[in-house]
Specification:
The chain contains 15 helices and eleven strands. It is α/β, with parallel strands linked by helices. The strands form two sheets. Strands 1, 2, 3, 4, 5, 6, 7, 8 and 11 form a nine-stranded mixed sheet that branches. Strands 9-10 form a two-stranded antiparallel ribbon. The chain is globular and about 70 Å long. The model has no long low-confidence stretch (mean pLDDT 94).
């Protein structure tokens, strides 16, 4: 087994400085012709993670022909951004469109960093043909009621007397008694035979059969299909939530992959997609202790489904600085101090080789030097810095978990809108 010293020496040997945009060139070269690029983050509230991902996203669009962006966000909210950058809705601007992110934690996507990216994407889309316009999509599973609302609203305008509308009404009626409280449905569903499974399953099946009648030039058919898919998988997610954390985690990440594949299929098999999500979703779960718990994730599943050269995963991390997060779920977020990384952790080793930003590229020749088990920091939307040493480090084989890693030594909190 490699010692910490040997990993540190490997970092010194293989790390490349990251000071300017030009320093990303070797990373772009390593990505090669990959069709799926996953961009991680060690927290949902760090400005540099968003800014560097935005810079990489813009370069992947301009230099490698990527046209799709999928994020760890709700489909209905991100559709407002998608419609704005594609020019479908013109009565909004890059900041006001982010008001659509109303579900906590709003700061994940309603922030200045995303507003700046949305502005760039809108400008870019004005200069290209329709089939080259960039799409911005949310692939998370939480928006059960919002997605059903979208389905009912659209069908009410386009096919109010049709079979699909009848199924949609039955589905939303089934969930109605739970007052839009996922926890209430989750606990109640334990005692209900099949709960609302049949209703959402019939809705999804019907929409798939009739999908051609909803085709238009503003992606109404895709919007309808994904919202119904969210309802179906969210129902399963909330039932799984009361049974085990591991089961609900898998349902959520499997849904994200299903949504990603639907988006890519819709835009053509040769389409190329950039995925923004936390490190815990995009880094291969089989290279972490998640494997022992029977957990999978987006990064692992996409690697299994695609050729090795078509998937490229980039992790992010920091040693210390600031972050936006909350002490408890649903409470007001605040700027917090991120303490120096735990001694012996991956971030501590990166810092000990020099308090500077750096990039590591992993390949078949050097991965072995980075495959010792080491703690790798993960900060969620709920964060208590004083206790992080006891629960915020995921044992990982970094060289197998990612294809590259971007390290920012000292970071700042992002700017919520």
């Amino acid at each position: 087994m490699f010692t910490i010293k040997s990993v540190t020496e490997a970092i010194k040997s293989f790390a490349q400085p990251f000071n300017t945009s030009e320093d990303l060139n070797p990373l772009l070269k390593a990505i090669g012709d990959a069709k799926i690029v996953l961009l991680g983050e060690a927290s949902h509230g760090t400005s540099e993670f968003y800014k560097v991902r935005a810079e990489l996203t813009m370069r992947l669009i301009e230099e490698k022909g990527f046209t799709l962006i999928a994020v760890e966000g709700d489909w209905p909210s991100t559709q407002r951004v998608n419609r704005f950058i594609k020019g479908y809705d013109t009565a909004v601007n890059n900041q006001s469109v982010l008001n659509a992110f109303e579900r906590w934690p709003t700061w994940m996507w309603a922030n200045k960093e995303i507003a700046d990216l949305a502005k760039w994407l809108e400008k870019y889309n004005k200069q290209v043909e329709d089939n080259r316009k960039i799409g911005f999509y949310g692939v998370d599973v939480y928006s059960l009621w919002e997605s059903l609302d979208e389905v009912v609203s659209y069908l009410g305008k386009t096919n109010p007397e049709g079979t699909d509308m009848a199924f949609a009404k039955k589905a939303i009626s089934c969930f109605e008694p739970f007052n839009r409280h996922p926890e209430t449905y989750a606990f109640s569903a334990v005692h209900i035979s099949d709960a609302c499974v049949d209703e959402v399953t019939k809705l999804v099946s019907s929409l798939r059969i009739n999908e051609k009648q909803y085709e238009d030039d503003q992606e109404a058919d895709l919007n309808l299909k994904i919202n119904a898919l969210v309802a179906q998988n969210a129902e399963e997610y909330y039932r799984a939530m009361v049974r085990s954390d591991e089961l609900s985690w898998n349902v959520r990440d499997e849904h994200m992959v299903e949504a990603i594949n639907e988006i890519m299929d819709y835009h053509g098999k040769e389409s190329k997609i950039i995925i923004w999500a936390h490190n815990t979703h995009i880094g291969d779960a089989s290279a972490t202790d998640m494997k022992e718990e029977g957990m999978t994730n987006v990064g692992e599943i996409l690697r299994q489904q695609n050729k090795t050269e078509n998937v490229f995963s980039i992790g992010f991390g920091t040693h210390s600085g600031e972050v936006i997060a909350a002490n408890k779920w649903g409470t007001i977020p605040k700027k917090m101090i991120v303490p120096p990384a735990r001694k012996g952790s991956w971030e501590d080793m990166l810092h000990s080789t020099g308090a500077s930003d750096k990039i590591l590229l992993f390949d078949e020749e050097n991965r072995v030097f980075f495959n010792d088990w080491v703690g790798h920091r993960a900060i969620g939307v709920v964060y208590n810095p004083e206790f992080e040493a006891y629960g915020n480090y995921v044992p990982s084989k970094i060289g197998s978990r990612y294809d590259a890693f971007i390290y920012i030594d000292k970071t700042n909190a992002l700017t919520p809108i």
